[in-house]
Amino acid sequence: MIGIVGYGAYIPKYRITVEEIAKTWRKDAEGISSSLNVKEKAVAGFDEDSCTIAVEAARKAVKMAGIDAQKIGAVYVGSESHPYAVKPTASVVADAINAGPELTAADLEFACKAGTAGIQMCMGLVASSMPDWIDYGLAIGSDTAQGRPGDALEYTAASGGAAFIIGKNEKELIASIDQTFSYTTDTPDFWRRQHAEFPRHAGRFTGEPAYFRHVVSAAEGLMAKAKMKPVDFDFAVFHQPNGKFPLRVSKMLGIDPKRAKQGLLTPEIGNTYSGATMIGLASVLDAAKPGQKILAVSYGSGAGSDAFALTVKKGIEKKRPCKKVLEMVKEKEYISYAEYAKFRRKLKTL
Amino acid sequence: MTNGNLPLIWRKFPERYLLQGNRCETCGTCFFPARQVCPNCRRKGKLVQMEMPRQGKIITFTEVFTGPYGFEFETPYFIAIIELSNKARLLSQVVDSPREKIKIGAKVEKVFRKISDIDPEGPIAYGYKFKVVG
Amino acid sequence: MRSVSIIGVGCTSFGEHWQKSLRELVAEAGIQAVLTSGLVGKDIEAIYGGCMASGRFIAQEHIGALLADQLGLNPIPSTRVEAACASGGVALRSGFLSVASGAYDIVAVGGVEKMTEVSTSEAAIALGGAGDQETELFHGASFPALYALMARKHMHDFGTTEEQMALCSVQAHKNGMLNPNSQFHKEISVEEVMHSGYVASPLKLLDCSPITDGAAAVILCETEKARKMGIPAVEIIGAGQASDSLALSGRKSLTEVAATKKAAEIAYKQANLGPKDIDVVELHDCFSIANIMAIEDLGFFKKGEGGKALEQGKTALNSEISVNPSGGLKCGHPVGATGVKQAVEIFEQLLGKAGKRQVKDAKIGLAHNVGGSGATAVVHIMRRL
């Protein structure tokens, strides 16, 4: 049996409201906020990037797992805002949590689903029939998402991340991963070219043929493979580019949208890209009880979805994190648009 | 400053990522950064590598409004001398903490941050900073 | 050890010397020192030159050779001495030891810094090298920040106030008005200091010494030889130097400069004198808090009472102890030159040549130079020969 032995989420403390951003562009804040179902977003500090976020999340995951970091055999960091184009974030994370040097590591990129791809890779390594390969794998999704000033994405593109340690010792599991299924096509709905500072997106094209098609196909494929029905799931977590899509996709799948609420954080912290589904899953695990079933479906533009079926294990009762995701959401300090521009180095002189 | 002192940045990873210092087993004093000689015991000292605790308290602090090269745009920022729970002392930035909570005696905890990112095409130096807890 | 005296001094004006390079500044101070000594260049057997960061400021190293060259004194040995802001004071002690030991009879000691060729933030990096590069400057701890850390602790432990610190600057500017070589000739008020804006709280712009170009030089001579020459001279009767941890976090106390206490203890013992015997002192006040700590560490006032002493005017010109008649580092702080400039000032004070800023009946003087945040301190005690 393979599954999660520990997890950690990290949300930077700074927030900018949709209202503050809209004020800068003289846009209708209320209209934007209600159409996106997003009130505010988390902003990384001046000295934070995807790497520091990944390290903080990983450190919490190791602490919760209660394992010796030296036993981690793989580190994968998924992000679309890796600080370097060439030079891994994963090696920094490995050294910063003292997991190295005897491990494999790599940075992943698949828009917002690179982190869940990392979970699948760790699952494969942990479950490998090759003898004594790895005991634990660490998969992280972390982003300081870039939104072009004035673009619609600026209201949601947020910073945050979560880390999951995948293991195979049944006694250590807080949740088993019972099945996974992925759905991938070449659908260019959102991209950032090499050397381009900000991503571009195809507007409404990002909805139907992109997000909904892939999330629904992956979730249905998973349920078929796992012989499960929508009603079997106590919780559902979806990638959350805004506060509305996950609720709509939940309905489309025949899952009561109420079951998607615990894992829906975008209204309060924005879209944390590679972190989004994973922080959502962390929040669900914060609240879940042994025996409960969880559906988690990520989405990455370009495009693909990874779906997972999980069962919460008894081990979770002894391993609750020191701080829940919803508590982190509440720890915040509001900043102005000017401070936001400074923190995220959007002022050209910085 | 070629390549942002790359070998130095690299050499310091254990110290700056993990707060690796050392301790003299003879007198029990903890040192950060690690020392080559225990100033108390000299040749009778026995230094062993150890990770410093992540918790400490502020001994004194200042808010910097004029930063040296590389820090000009980070101002204002707080610098403090912190005494770790094992009595070793270090200097660090204090971040993510409400101004009114940054005071002498305040409890702090280590966080992982970018320390120096001077050249947009150069290496990034990560390391420790602290934040007020409670 | 043989007795050593200062027989000649030279000093450029302190300020922004846009028209002069380091080499012109050292030549000006050096030539003046030789002339006042009544000697000729070829009488000088060796040179010790204090310079902190010429590599950073003007990309020029090998200052020892440059000094001898510029003064036309090749091929005598010429050595650069570096101890951050105490480079000048340590150069003076090095020259003193070389004469006291009998190695030479006559040596020249110089100090110089050319600081205005670079931007302020580059200068901050150069000066930051006086602290611990790897654990202080790396984290953005500028020099004002290090002294601010000490100031905050001093305020916390002893109730020292920002206004008391401001008084240091007010007094320094007042004395500087009387010194033709001073960088500033402007009186300032406590309010002006208080409103000059934080550089690193609680230190404000006017609590800090400026960026300055300047050079100073003295000629040292074995005392018996000086006596025979019959020229006005000042004898160095105590020379103490001490060190401490490079980084502030390594200090036992953050409200004192332990190296100052140690260097002073050595110098007082050699001179067989105590703080009460000192009539005039040039002390290291790179920041206002440094002034307060120094008057305590040198033994003029009890620890924690420096702020009050300032408030009561006990350190003003011709009061209980005349502190920094030159204007101190507010007269300008070309880091490598400062320690030598202090000796020049004490020389002039003890010989009654200090003009409007003359301390009445000054018989014993003390010069106190600090490197970094207190990792080096050097104290010289002098009397009229």
Automatic annotation (TrEMBL), chain A:
<dbReference type="GO" id="GO:0004421">
    <property type="term" value="F:hydroxymethylglutaryl-CoA synthase activity"/>
</dbReference>
<keyword id="KW-0808">Transferase</keyword>
<comment type="subunit">
    <text>Interacts with acetoacetyl-CoA thiolase that catalyzes the precedent step in the pathway and with a DUF35 protein. The acetoacetyl-CoA thiolase/HMG-CoA synthase complex channels the intermediate via a fused CoA-binding site, which allows for efficient coupling of the endergonic thiolase reaction with the exergonic HMGCS reaction.</text>
</comment>
<feature type="binding site">
    <location>
        <position position="204"/>
    </location>
    <ligand>
        <name>CoA</name>
    </ligand>
</feature>
<feature type="binding site">
    <location>
        <position position="239"/>
    </location>
    <ligand>
        <name>(3S)-3-hydroxy-3-methylglutaryl-CoA</name>
    </ligand>
</feature>
<feature type="domain" description="Beta-ketoacyl-[acyl-carrier-protein] synthase III C-terminal">
    <location>
        <begin position="223"/>
        <end position="309"/>
    </location>
</feature>
<comment type="similarity">
    <text>Belongs to the thiolase-like superfamily. Archaeal HMG-CoA synthase family.</text>
</comment>
<comment type="function">
    <text>Catalyzes the condensation of acetyl-CoA with acetoacetyl-CoA to form 3-hydroxy-3-methylglutaryl-CoA (HMG-CoA). Functions in the mevalonate (MVA) pathway leading to isopentenyl diphosphate (IPP), a key precursor for the biosynthesis of isoprenoid compounds that are building blocks of archaeal membrane lipids.</text>
</comment>
<feature type="binding site">
    <location>
        <position position="271"/>
    </location>
    <ligand>
        <name>(3S)-3-hydroxy-3-methylglutaryl-CoA</name>
    </ligand>
</feature>
<feature type="binding site">
    <location>
        <position position="248"/>
    </location>
    <ligand>
        <name>(3S)-3-hydroxy-3-methylglutaryl-CoA</name>
    </ligand>
</feature>
<feature type="active site" description="Proton donor/acceptor">
    <location>
        <position position="239"/>
    </location>
</feature>
<dbReference type="GO" id="GO:0003985">
    <property type="term" value="F:acetyl-CoA C-acetyltransferase activity"/>
</dbReference>
<dbReference type="InterPro" id="IPR016039">
    <property type="entry name" value="Thiolase-like"/>
</dbReference>
<dbReference type="Pfam" id="PF08541">
    <property type="entry name" value="ACP_syn_III_C"/>
</dbReference>
<feature type="binding site">
    <location>
        <position position="28"/>
    </location>
    <ligand>
        <name>(3S)-3-hydroxy-3-methylglutaryl-CoA</name>
    </ligand>
</feature>
UniProtKB/TrEMBL annotation, chain B:
<dbReference type="InterPro" id="IPR052513">
    <property type="entry name" value="Thioester_dehydratase-like"/>
</dbReference>
<feature type="domain" description="ChsH2 C-terminal OB-fold">
    <location>
        <begin position="51"/>
        <end position="113"/>
    </location>
</feature>
<protein>
    <submittedName>
        <fullName>Zn-ribbon domain-containing OB-fold protein</fullName>
    </submittedName>
</protein>
<dbReference type="Pfam" id="PF01796">
    <property type="entry name" value="OB_ChsH2_C"/>
</dbReference>
<dbReference type="InterPro" id="IPR012340">
    <property type="entry name" value="NA-bd_OB-fold"/>
</dbReference>
<feature type="domain" description="ChsH2 rubredoxin-like zinc ribbon">
    <location>
        <begin position="23"/>
        <end position="43"/>
    </location>
</feature>
<dbReference type="Pfam" id="PF12172">
    <property type="entry name" value="zf-ChsH2"/>
</dbReference>
<dbReference type="InterPro" id="IPR022002">
    <property type="entry name" value="ChsH2_Znr"/>
</dbReference>
<dbReference type="InterPro" id="IPR002878">
    <property type="entry name" value="ChsH2_C"/>
</dbReference>
TrEMBL record, chain C:
<dbReference type="InterPro" id="IPR002155">
    <property type="entry name" value="Thiolase"/>
</dbReference>
<dbReference type="GO" id="GO:0016747">
    <property type="term" value="F:acyltransferase activity, transferring groups other than amino-acyl groups"/>
</dbReference>
<dbReference type="Pfam" id="PF22691">
    <property type="entry name" value="Thiolase_C_1"/>
</dbReference>
<dbReference type="InterPro" id="IPR055140">
    <property type="entry name" value="Thiolase_C_2"/>
</dbReference>
<dbReference type="InterPro" id="IPR020616">
    <property type="entry name" value="Thiolase_N"/>
</dbReference>
<keyword id="KW-0414">Isoprene biosynthesis</keyword>
<dbReference type="InterPro" id="IPR016039">
    <property type="entry name" value="Thiolase-like"/>
</dbReference>
<feature type="domain" description="Thiolase N-terminal">
    <location>
        <begin position="5"/>
        <end position="223"/>
    </location>
</feature>
<dbReference type="Pfam" id="PF00108">
    <property type="entry name" value="Thiolase_N"/>
</dbReference>
<dbReference type="GO" id="GO:0008299">
    <property type="term" value="P:isoprenoid biosynthetic process"/>
</dbReference>
<feature type="domain" description="Thiolase C-terminal">
    <location>
        <begin position="240"/>
        <end position="383"/>
    </location>
</feature>
<protein>
    <submittedName>
        <fullName>Thiolase domain-containing protein</fullName>
    </submittedName>
</protein>
